[in-house]
Amino acid sequence: MRRTDPTSGSTVGVLLSRYSVGGKHLVDPAPAQDELLQMTAAALRAPDHAGLIPFRFAAVRGSALERLADLFEQAAANAGKSAADAALDRHRALGIPLLVAVIARIDTGHPVATVHEQWMTVGGALTNFLNAAHAMGYGGKMLSGAKVRSVPVMQAFCGPGEQLVGWMVLGTPRKTGTPKFDKPDAADVMSDWPPA
Ligand SMILES: Cc1cc2nc3c(=O)[nH]c(=O)nc-3n(C[C@H](O)[C@H](O)[C@H](O)COP(=O)(O)O)c2cc1C
Fold first, then answer.
1. Gap from CA of 143 to ligand 1 centroid (Å)
2. What is this model's ipTM?
3. In this predicted model, what pLDDT tens digit does every residue of 110-167 receive, in sequence order?
4. Which residues of 150-181 are buried (b: 16+ CB within 10 A; e: fewer)?
5. Residues with C-beta less than 6 Å from any ligand 1 atom
6. CATH superfamily for domain 20-60+99-174
7. Could you give the CA distance from residue 144 to residue 20 in angstroms, rounded to a whole number?
8. Residue of minimum CA distance from atom 30 in ligand 1
9. Which stretches make up the Nitroreductase domain (predicted)?
10. Which long-range contacts (CB under 8 A, 24 or more apart) does 8-14 make?
């Protein structure tokens, strides 16, 4: 069941109401290709010093999820996990309506945009992507874990100079996302300078 359309509220209301929704609470339908491209267009609106676009995305769907499941199982086995735990890892790629890999392309020698500035753009991009998904009635969550450092998994997604950040799981939320962490009041993280 799709959540009430949050776009009926204000834009800021939409941003304030986004909470991550994990894979076990996501069902079909997954975002369609045109919706995925709108989310990607939102990601491209992230602040980007020197316009480097230090990221790209790769959608994993249909039979490709089986291939990813194989890679997850292999990564777990390589990490010394038991066959039962490796099978659990394999299962993590299955039953998700859509996975979108986030791949960073950081130019470590750029004369203008520093490495940390480029990583901030990657973060802004995936945040905009998830906010757009939420505004369109979908749920999602950014995930990483040790698997992103597994050589066979990295090699499957990355070309030279690229790094695998992780995956956004996406789909129709079966339940509304809820806050995971206690957050401070906004006034605690916004102050005047110099302090009074
Ligand atoms: C790059 C990145 C990787 C993350 N990896 C994981 C992960 O592997 N497992 C996890 O439970 N949360 C992970 N998170 C955090 C969740 O995506 C989510 O932001 C967090 O649970 C807080 O929920 P919220 O988005 O509703 O505030 C990651 C976040 C980022 C930005």
1. 6
2. 0.99
3. 999 999 999 999 999 999 999 999 999 999 999 998 999 999 999 999 999 999 999 9
4. beebbebbbeeebbbbbbbbbbbbeeebeeee
5. 19-20, 141-145, 165-166, 177, 180
6. NADH Oxidase (3.40.109.10)
7. 14
8. 142
9. 17-171
10. 14/131, 14/134, 14/135
